[in-house]
Amino acid sequence: MEERKTTNGHLLALLTILIWGTTFISTKILLIDFTPVEILFFRFLLGYVVLILIYSGPVRTASFREELLFMAAGLCGVTLYFLVENIALVYTLASNVGVIVSIAPFLTAVLAHFFLEGEKLHRQFLFGFGIALTGIVLIGLNGSFILKLNPLGDLLAFLAPAVWAVYSVLMRTISQRNYHTIGSTRRVFFYGLLFMIPALFLFEFHLDLGRLGKMANLSNLLFLGLGASALCFVTWNRAVGLLGAVQTSVYIYLVPVITVAASVLILQEQITWVTGLGTGLTLLGSLISEGKTKKVASSA
């Protein structure tokens, strides 16, 4: 039974990353007619509505302290992570952001080491992280070997994986209280949208639904709302509950690999030998880190 749960956790994490790794295509298309904060708000609003339709049962917390867990998860995993990442893209290169955000598994492991039982930091995980990060840097540079530093944008980019690490630890804590996975994800979305409201007044936001008349806009927003938000946050949160925050976070290494594959298959972009090498190193590093966390999980 335990082995089956572990297998399900890996399958859910892999499914989530496969979808998240292709979201850049939809976002790129939507950015023609929508601002980043508009895309963010509409996709999570759509995701929230869908989750209500799927599961409308109440999520009863035992105390205000437990309610704070959901509030903090919504603030970190929905509002801050995506806003900080989008704002960082304004001030620095996308390749910089892609590389920096990929340290999320390492930061998650550090936080889990101090705040979660049975998820200690080990040398093999760090070794795998180093190899995977080398590969991710090569993918980000794409053979140009030029890394332009932009202090403000890069600093904001570092904040994104930091708040995602906090979100991962919070969701692991929430999952241990045996809440309904869809119900708890819906509660997180609610607080994420609530904390997002002030940003709608700070950044350019228009409630112009006429833009959805374009099939490209409608289909891509549905993909982000139904797939990347409603479905993926449920499957990711469930995977965190089954595998733990550290073991699940290792799958984040695969995002740039999937992005490269999607670029080749969908956008017909050319892959360089440097990108190919980076992809191989990223896969190797993730396998090394995953191998250690599996051993720890089975002995816990």
From TrEMBL:
Q: How does it sit in the membrane?
A: Multi-pass membrane protein
- One GO term of the cellular component aspect? plasma membrane
Q: Where in the cell is it found?
A: Cell membrane
Using the record, list the residue span of the signal peptide; answer none if the entry has no such feature.
none
Cite the InterPro entries for this sequence: AA-Vitamin_Transporters, EamA_dom, EmrE-like
| SUPFAM superfamilies the record matches | Multidrug resistance efflux transporter EmrE (SSF103481)
Which positions fall inside the EamA domain? 8-140, 152-288
The record's keywords, sorted A to Z, are: Cell membrane, Membrane, Transmembrane, Transmembrane helix
Q: What is its main location?
A: membrane
Pfam families for the chain: EamA
Transmembrane annotation, as ranges: 12-31, 37-56, 68-91, 97-116, 125-149, 155-175, 187-206, 218-236, 248-267, 273-289
Instruction: Give the family this protein belongs to, as stated in its UniProt record.
Output: Belongs to the EamA transporter family.
Descriptive protein name:
EamA family transporter
Species? Paenibacillus donghaensis
